[in-house]
Amino acid sequence: MNEENLNQDMSSEKKYWKSAEQLKENSPIVDALEQNEFVEHIPTDEFLGDKENLESSKTSRRDFLKYVGFSTAAASLAACEGPVIKSIPYVVQPERLVPGVSDYYATTIADGFDFGSLLVKTREGRPIKIESNKEATSMTAGKPRVHASVLSLYDINRLQNPMIDGKQSTWSAFNKEVKEKLDKTDKKIVLLTQTFASPSTDRLIQEFSEKFENVEHVVYDSVSETAVLDAFEQKYGIRALPNYDLSNAESIVGIGADFLGDWLGGGFDGAYSKSRVPQDGKMSKHFQFEANMTLSGANSDERFATKPSEQKHVLVEIYNQIVGRAASTNLSEKHQAAVKKAVKSLKKGGKNAVVLCGIDDVNAQLMALAINEALGSELTNLSNPRMIRQGDANKVSSLIKDMNSGHVGALLMCGVNPAYTLPNSDDFTTGLEKVNTVVDFALTMDETAKLSTYVGALPHYLESWGDVRLTYQDYSLVQPTIKPIFNTRNFQECLLDWTGNSKSYYDYIKSNFVESNEGVSWNATLHDGFYQSSDKFDTSDIDTSVAVSASKLLQSKAEGLELTLYTKSGLGDGQQANNPWLQEFPDPITRTSWDNYLTVSRSDADELGLTNDNVANGALNGSYANVTVGKTTLQNVPVYIQPGQAKGSVGLALGYGKKESIQEEMQVGVNAYPLYNNFNKVQEVKIEKASGTHEFACIQLHNTMMGRKDIIKETTLEIFNTKDKDYWNQTPQVSLDHQETPVDTPEVDLWNEFDRSIGHHFNLSIDLNACTGCGACVIACHSENNVPVVGKSEIRKSRDMHWLRIDRYYSSNETLAGDYDKKDNIKGLSSALSEFGELEKPSEENVEVVFQPVMCQHCNHAPCETVCPVAASAHGRQGQNHMTYNRCVGTRYCANNCPYKVRRFNWFRYNQNDEFDYHMNNDLGRMVLNPDVTVRARGVMEKCSMCIQMTQLTILEAKREGRPIKDGEFQTACSNACDNGAMVFGDINDKESVIAEKKEDDRTYYLLEYLGVKPNVFYHTKIRNTNEA
Amino acid sequence: MSHYEAPIRKPLVTGEKSYHDISVEIARPVEGKANKSWWIVFSISLIAFLWGLGCIVYTVSTGIGTWGLNKTIGWAWDITNFVWWVGIGHAGTLISAVLLLFRQKWRMAINRSAEAMTIFSVVQAGLFPIIHMGRPWLAYWVLPIPNPYGSLWVNFNSPLLWDVFAISTYLSVSLVFWRTGLLPDFAMLRDRAVKPFQKHIYGILSFGWSGRVKDWQRFEEVSLVLAGLATPLVLSVHTIVSFDFATSVIPGWHTTIFPPYFVAGAIFSGFAMVNTLLIIMRKVVSLEDYITVQHIELMNIVIMITGSIVGVAYITELFMAWYSGVEYEQYAFLNRATGPYAWAYWAMMTCNVFSPQFMWFPKLRRSIMFSFIISIVVNIGMWFERFVIIVTSLHRDFMPSAWTMFSPTFVDIGIYIGTIGFFFVLFLLYARTFPVIAQAEVKSIMKSSGEQYKKIREEQGDDAKLYKMPEQKPLPDFNKLIAEANSTDDTSDKNTKTD
Question: Is there a single domain that holds both residue A676 and residue A718?
């Protein structure tokens, strides 16, 4: 039957019948029933009419007491009330809001640190999830921090009202008083703001400056890119960041630039991953010279641990060999060879080669630009530079001087927290006392707000209007997805008020947009969330005369240890420190949560007597160190011994140690901003051991793969290109009748196959070449599936609840291939004893890193399913391994028997429990919960469900619309969050689908395939490009 | 039952005991007052029990998170304790059922207490599968009972479900067996009781035992049938417990050798526990004549043999790991012996494999003090065996990223100590209210194995009369009596003397 017929049949009029009797014509019973309730007459008169009988019957005393007793008991039982949960239904249901159906809005995050176009999923008017706006032309925002930002909306520590002198006030009073003060000021008025990158705000500030004379606007980025901005401005005449598109890259050389992290605002990883997947026998070659172990270094083909001072020499040497001799360098033999290789590769790559430099020095940045120019690199997208950093460190410094000398009459701040993020915050604080009027717009009563007379309560970006110019061409809109929860107002709205403009900010943005983009539909842009103008940045008049001084760059001699400050993929610059998802998010490299720490190389640690040890329950303890930069000393910084850390260098993350308006549980780590002198992330430090031990909360405690090839398969590009699949990706063999037989042969199987021919059969593909380990999927999964946050002490007990984890393994030899060889060559007991011991230790400086996302593998022959005594773990028709929470009695047998260790047990009640005082313990925080997913009870097992609520919705929608499901419609939270294309989800019964194609790929392998559990998740062999350029 | 017994066999009941002596001596602890040491031990046990109970209440009300478990190690002390207690229980059934079928007379002095130990330890064991659940209030869901949740049924593939059946069957059969054996002894207590309350209670407990031939005949039949029923249970229960591990995929658990290895281990630990208990009990309630050095020696021999079987099993595991060629299997055993929990492995090896080998020396296995020490050592070793199997296999299995360690909390320890306390509370109460030796059975072997009778046979040959006909009192001279009756009053004294 085709679908059209089916629909017609279904729409025909239906008759319902009550009994077979109705089918007969003129049935007396049917007639009788139409008149009476019963067919036969009920003889009530017989017993009610007999008065004598009624009178003679007696109710004895015993009967009476029985009745009284029963009715009292029944009445009191009925009086017992269950817990009352008050819910208010819509009295007047908003139009177009269907309960149970999600709405998506395109909007933009622009908090001064993170910028990107995104989609917000709302349910019943509540934003509950952030997704990346895949249609957007740039910066699709697939970062863990951005995904987690929805939870910051529901932060109970947010400011709920404007404050004057620390007391709650109203907006009218606030605006009136501030305006009065501004009018009276005869000294300078300074606006100290984050980078808004907002055309409307820029215009508004312009208008403000016109109205109040003597206005200065200082843009302050807490983590500064001043060197890059200055270099770009000098060379190209625009204060912007260079933009790179790495998707066609053939050769990438990173020098101290974590471009897969937050370098230049991040977001380069999607394109990078494209270049990393071998196609037609080609993939990019990536060299990384860096001091800290970063995501970029971890993903590179060849990583050279290089101290910051050496990085400068590396850069100059590359410049010497590509552009022309600038200065003589002093490099070790190892580094000379490395540079030679890198240069060879760059030259070969030519227009598809690029040097990415993260050295905070204008000369260095100019040299990097020059190298790329000399290479003719087309990966540098000069016509569309990034506008997302505008900060000027020098202006900030002079502002503080001005403040201290009493030249500033009014200071208006927005989106910045200098009292916390400035290295010289004490100077700022003392300067602030000399400023007559201090106004701060902030989300929380943070360090700076505490010191301000007037504090404007900012709305979260999900509650506000705005516009952002992400890059020169890309324009993006911010639209509210919820009515402001608190009495908050945008800085821009107040500016409008103070300048006497009666327009709302929304109208202002709209008219500004319409004026500057003629012929572009406002509604379409709002719907899409972005608009790309064709107006490219004109690169024709480049100033080629900019002098580069390599000798100046190489001037400074580093003595002692060199510190590189960095930001973590979790907390970033620390704005969202009160976000429990981000605190519990394990650092992709160290797999440590709830902390920042000094990363130290093993040999430096040994020299300084710093140690890392595991205690009885496996948890990691580390020494403390005092870190001194100049005159500033940070006391008791925890020490983490980091494989791959360049000898003579240390690393420390910014963004931690925040105290104000931060819940006590989340006041973790140390504030590293005081060490961020002159906004240079590289500093010379002195380190000495301090007393005491620090307790770390690591999600992964064992750091090497012990040479187990069944977990991560990898090979080199050369072998991949030249050898047969069986050579580099052989299916494991097992013994069947004393014959070596591939484990996927049906005869080997103990069990009968499920019949999968009908319906959908879901598979998830994970490409280890495309995965950079960024962790966006981890937060997306957290947010989609209401995964609880358990806190530092529980993580320390190895009780994290993440359904999806990204395992990170270090090689124990210099390469993973070396580990495999070492294990294969173990002969005899004594060799096993010593060599397995050695395989436990990660290599020190030269180390390879691999990432592997692991979630429930949804085995077709699942070991967990057979062992559950109550059948709470069962197999689904679509290939999922189901977990029935309400049937689970919690024996944990399934978790023990899971070879992948992906099952998570609810050790405690994690919601509405003061012991776990995170978002699930307050009404506001619980608003982020996904209503489609159960919040699990204490004592039950949980795990990845392959987002069954999402796949079922897709099926139902297609069914309702009477259409087949297109490939790509099926998604899981993780596959949807992955901008790198590492995770692909779909129905393998759809033979045309991408997933079906991926399953047949030569690189496909299954995790621990020899076990024969037949997972529905598969991986793609990691290919390393070891080719000499 | 006075079968012929070779004189070379050592007597099983020493001392010049009459049948009446046996009744008196076995009823003494029940009838007398508890001494000071009983009260001290009882108080300590009760405190431990209450502490454990508190820990259980805390666990159930707060969550399993109060234990030291984690995402990788889902079972540790809970299931270790479970298997340990079940294992201890095995000796009782083996002694009373298997040795009955083999007509081993030496069982009679120890079977009652060994069975009591079985039941009390199975009670402890049974606690753990319930309290280790995340939601113990739903524990009844593991029973295949019709329910209103539609077609929800238990999963018959799951070894945990088999455990439910195995343990409950075991407990019920053991209980019935024990109860039946107690009938004649309760009757003896009833008949001796002087206080009406005790008489009444023991009257109820003895089910109207009359001591008729028919009673004894049925008693013997039932005992035999129950022994037949219980014998396969000795093998099956621990076999099924071992399936919890053997049917899994975890290296170190997935081992076909487990059923015999677990059964041998269970008997090993059970006999050790019997030794521990009885060596104390024989001293405290003066039953040295019934539980003799001979008994202890025989038990030590069983301990030595089963200990050696367990040792062979350990070595076989290592061999199989190497021989299998499976890298995960090989690493699991390498890690056991040399990894972070090597101390537990070598504690197990020392206690279970090396220490029982001392029993090859007759002098040592006849030493009561030494036997006692070894019995404790063996039970420590057997606890470690289960800990090694469970924790060291789990803590480093397939995915190195999930490797971690286990460390118990005070609740883990509290519950374990609590079950030991509970066990001793039960056992001490038992020792004060139950006949701790199956006196009716012991009486039945007096003639064949009692020391005094063996002596008679030795002196007078096998055909010697083992009984004395009661001496006939010479009839009084009635004529004389009549004559004396007629004489003076003060002759009465003389009359008695002539008797």
Answer: no
